[in-house]
UniProtKB/TrEMBL annotation:
InterPro entries in alphabetical order: Spherulin4
Organism phylogeny: Bacteria, Bacillati, Actinomycetota, Actinomycetes, Kitasatosporales
The protein's name in its UniProt record: Phage tail protein
Pfam families: Spherulin4
Protein source organism: Streptomyces monashensis
């Protein structure tokens, strides 16, 4: 099968707990019930990303303060979204957003979205991660590459998003062989346009490829015109149930 490239990658995934990493819903004022659902006890969440307005916004948002506080109260890790625009944003701007996330929303870490993955960009990304840990020594750092980066990035983050895209691409995707050197809890997959009838297959692919943090949704990007992550999947209860009980391979 195209998902399998090494025996080690498949073996490493056995018995590993799968959890949800939520890339971030629409603003809590627009989707209050969905944000409230995330705080329901027993939901298998690894973390939830808070993206107020392409980052932390320009001032504290009371609706986001309430949503973040409710999640923290439920023991859910909240990550602030930092957009690196594949290396185009200045270090000062990224650091400023990080401070606002910490000061206003008391985030537990950061998703460095649109993170570059080339070897040449690694020193600057390493600098950003080191600085973020200096201002928040317990910060959980996720690099949002959206594809497999140069292997050296894995030494500088708690987790890497090595796939973000459609089900039509994911079902034929291949895992980079170097990922077999790391445990599955280091990798995250975000997949949209997954039909309910293929949900179990998608979960098996994630396990075979060694990704323990996942987010699958039946929402689509309509050819890049909409954000598929803004709305909770129609089969939310189904995926929560499958992850909570485990899926047979």
């Amino acid at each position: 099968m195209p998902h399998l490239t090494t025996t080690e990658a498949g073996a490493a995934s056995t018995g590993v707990r799968t959890a949800l990493g939520v890339p971030g819903f629409a603003h809590p004022l627009v989707a209050p019930a969905q944000w409230a659902e995330l705080a329901r006890p027993g939901t298998p969440l690894d973390w939830v990303v808070l993206n107020v307005s392409a980052g932390p916004g320009t001032r504290p948002d009371p609706h986001c303060l309430e949503a973040a506080g409710r999640l923290r109260g439920a023991g859910v890790r909240v990550l602030g979204q930092l957009d690196l625009t594949y290396g185009a944003r200045s270090f000062a701007d990224v650091l400023g957003d990080a401070h606002r996330h910490l000061d206003w929303y008391r985030v537990d870490g950061f998703l460095l979205d649109r993170c570059p993955g080339e070897r040449a960009a690694l020193p600057e990304v390493r600098r950003a991660a080191t600085t973020l840990r200096a201002i928040s020594d317990t910060a959980h750092i996720v690099f949002g590459h959206r594809r497999h980066p140069y292997p050296g990035y894995a030494e500088n983050a708690d987790q890497l998003v090595t796939f973000s895209g459609s089900w039509s691409d994911y079902r034929w995707s291949q895992v980079a062989e170097w990922t077999a050197d790391y445990p599955p809890d280091r990798f995250c997959h975000f997949v949209h346009s997954v039909p309910l009838g293929h949900l179990d297959e998608a979960l098996r692919i994630a396990r075979w490829q060694g990704a323990a943090t996942i987010y699958f949704t039946d929402r689509t990007d309509r050819g890049g015109r909409t954000d598929p992550w803004e709305t909770m999947p129609g089969y939310w209860d189904d995926i929560v149930s499958r992850i909570g009980t485990g899926v047979s391979e």
